[in-house]
Every structure is written in structure tokens, then in C-alpha cells.
Amino acid sequence: MAPKLNDPSLFKTDVCYVNGEWVKAGSGKTFEVHDPATGKLIGTCPEFTAKDTDNAIAAAATAFREFRTKTGRERSKLLRKWYDLMMENSDDLATLITLENGKPLADAKGEVNYAASFFEWFSEEAPRVYGDTIPAGVPGNRVVTIKEPVGVCGLITPWNFPAAMITRKIGPALAAGCTTVCKAPGETPFTSLAIAELAHRAGIPKGVVNVVTTLNNTPEIGETLTTHPAVQKVSFTGSTGVGKLLMKQASSTLKILSMELGGNAPFIVFDDADIDTAVAGAIASKFRSSGQTCVCANRIYVQKGIYDEFAEKFAEKVRAFKVGNGFEEGITHGPLIHDRATSKVDDHVKDAEKKGGKVVVGGQKMPDLGSNFYQPTVITGMTKDMAIASEETFGPVAGLFPFDTEKEVVDLANAAEVGLAGYFFSRDLERITRVAEALEVGMIGVNTGLISDPAAPFGGVKQSGFGREGSKYGIEEYQNIKTITYGGMGKPMQGS
């Protein structure tokens, strides 16, 4: 089922990108990748092993010795060229995303633009890595700091944004002077491999960017990246449970870590909010990529005075959605990534119904379309004992929770073990300030449901992980600060 691309050479099957070359797995084994909308086979990818990954790490370690010496301006030009190539091939990249991820083509095109923007942003950050001159406490000493690349970085990315998650990590790594080994998601590897082909065309030196694939050997490769002595940093985006395991493994060699983990975002609508604006924000936040994003609204809290009006307007918008194959005209929402995701969503809906929730829109699988489709769903009368209140649904289900007071809803929002993103709508400036400071999350949208921006730092608190991606802070995650103290610098001038 080869995709119809303007440039068919971007579709890479049975090979990974290692040391500037396209190589097969040492064992010759491959795994299948299927279209989540139709179930049809898209193609096969190499089933890499720990030994195969060792080769990629060795290539990155060798390349680092020279790549670290390039000036920031030289690295900037490489990233800029890579950005330009992504934009030139944006239609093909979007086609690959829709084919293997399922999101509607319009959403996929938006992701490509977002993904490319990280190469653009960090191409501009690369020449602007500054150290400091620090007044010394010892007479005659001079203290300066410089920033250096940490070294080889292991990057592990998820399937829900197959383009943006890899660029958000590789962009700052290369800008800082690091080299990389990226494990592409087994569900959506072809987008990552196409981006690697564009890296080759951009002239990224061999060994600087390596992209490996696996499905069955994912735990083995994860352990390799987190324990190999040549890897100095691991950046992971995925579930909290897997993040804890990788962190434990990485402790054996004390690697630098960045963890962007699970979320359970509260979305709060106060009774002084503009209801239409809040509805639009909730739609954008909850149902983007069919709810398969770590920052999407998972618990929607609406103050009782406007609850009924909000629920009615919100449900009306959801009824207008059109679900189907992402390549079809007019489709607003595609399939979930696999049938396990569909089953989890259905379990959450049934749990809510059993405990008194009322499904006002959707609530059913869509077998006529395929095993991975689920109706966009709205449930009213939600309570805190329902699974959606404490578990990340990662699907197109919006549960509306009523609340009375500001303190009550902030306490409910903060009851989660995770703290990635949060949203709230209000026109009271004092309340906005109070609530923004009180919510225990790493990112907050005030009167907006969309917060992703390469200029904005992305990351969470509590069990949503640590570290920041994007923004001026993103490059710092790939740098070490070196302090240099010069002694004997206070001697009198000669001839005085």
C-alpha cells in the first residue's frame, strides 16, 4: 500500500538511517505497519536490536567529536536547510502522517508546519548561545562560564505527533552541537524516516542524526539508550509508567534526562467567562487529534450557573463532527491509533454511565467504519469517582463536571498526580491571576484551548515529568555549563 507521494523516495521501507546510510536490521527481521483507518498494510520497517542500536550510538559518538566544533552559525545553516526541505515536501509528509497515524489531512498539514517550526526556531537559537562573566569572590581571580553540548543524545518519541515530536527534540540537540539516536515510534515510523531522508539532503553530517525502528524490541532498545555509557542524555515523551522505568534504568550511568509524560488536563469554565469562547476553546483542546494528545482537556469543569448552557452549546458543536478516513473530504476526525485505544475509551464511557453519567452525544464504537473508530462523545453529570476523573482517556470523550466555587474546582484540578497542562476561562483579572498561580501544572491556557508554540516552553510538573522543550529554554536541556576560573589576574601592570 505505497502512499501516493510527489516524491516516492521519501517512503523508506525495510531500512533505518544510521551513520548517513540506509541500513537493514542485522537479523533481517521486519515488522508491519498498518493504516489505522483501513487496517491495510502500509509497509514494513526493520526490527532493530540492541546490537543494531549500538552501531547507531557508535556512529553518533564518532560524529560528535567533529560536530561539536562547528560554530553556532554553521549548525544554524544546516537546521535552516532542513526546515526549508520540510516545507518544500510538506504535502508528502502530511500524507505519510495521515496514512500511518489516521488524523485528517488538514490536521496533518498543520502538524508538518508545527514540526518544521522547531528547526526554524532552533536554527535561530544556535548562534546565540551565551556564557557569563561572573564577579569573583577571590581577589585576582576571573570567573567565566561557557556552554558546551552534552554529547550523544538518545531520543524516544511517541506516535501521536510523528513529525513534531522528533523535530522538537532533534532541533535543540543539533543547535547545541549534540548528536542523536532517535527511536521512532513503531506505530508511525515512516514519517520519522522521511524526515531523516530530508536531513541527508540538507547535508547534516553522517552520524549526527540516526533514526532506528522497532516494535517488538522496544524495551530492549529503550534499555540500550538509557544504559549505554556513550549516551549522555535521554529525552522521552510518553506515558508516566514507561518514563519511570527509563529513569530507573538511566540511573546506572547518571544520564541527564528530560521527561514529558502523561497528563490529565483540567479545563475550567467559570460563570463569568464568555461561553462561546469557552466552548470553542474546549472543542479545540479536547478533540484535537481525536483527543490523542497529552495536553488535551481531560476533565472539563463548568460552574453550575452556566453548566446547562455550556453543555448544550458544546454538544451541538460535537454533533457536527464528521468521522472517517482522514483522506476523505470534509472529515474532521479520524480513527484512534489501534483497537486497544478504542477499548479504553469505551471502558471509560461505560464506567461513567454505570456511575450516573449521561451520554448526550456519541458513546459508541463505529464498526461500520472500522475497529479503530469511536464516536466523539459528550457526557454530562460527571463525578469525581468516575475513571475519567483520575485517568487520562486519550480519546474523543468529553466529560463535563459541575462545580460550585473557585476553591472547590482548584482543589479538584490539583488532585491529580500529574501536572502537564491546564486551561481556564474567565473575564475577572483578579481571578485569572489567582487561579493561574494556584494550578499545579507546567503550562496554562487562559481563555484559549491551544497552547503549543515553538516560542513557548513545553513541559510539566509532578508526575508529568521535568525539563522543557521548545522556547529559549529548550536548547539548555542539551548543554552543560562549564566554569573556568583564571587565577593571578590581579597583578599590578608592568612598569607601574
UniProtKB/TrEMBL annotation:
Pathway in which the depicted protein is active: Amino-acid degradation; 4-aminobutanoate degradation
Secretion signal span: none
Organism, scientific name: Anthostomella pinea
Gene3D superfamilies in the record: Aldehyde Dehydrogenase, Chain A, domain 1, Aldehyde Dehydrogenase, Chain A, domain 2
UniProt record similarity statement: Belongs to the aldehyde dehydrogenase family.
Protein name, as recorded: Succinate-semialdehyde dehydrogenase
One Gene Ontology cellular component annotation held by this UniProt entry: cytoplasm
Gene Ontology biological process terms in this record: carboxylic acid biosynthetic process; gamma-aminobutyric acid catabolic process
SUPFAM superfamilies per record: ALDH-like
Enzyme class per UniProt: oxidoreductase
EC number(s) given by UniProt: 1.2.1.16
Any one GO molecular-function label of the UniProt entry: succinate-semialdehyde dehydrogenase (NAD+) activity
Domain Aldehyde dehydrogenase: 22-484
Domain of life: Eukaryota
PANTHER family per record: SUCCINATE-SEMIALDEHYDE DEHYDROGENASE, MITOCHONDRIAL
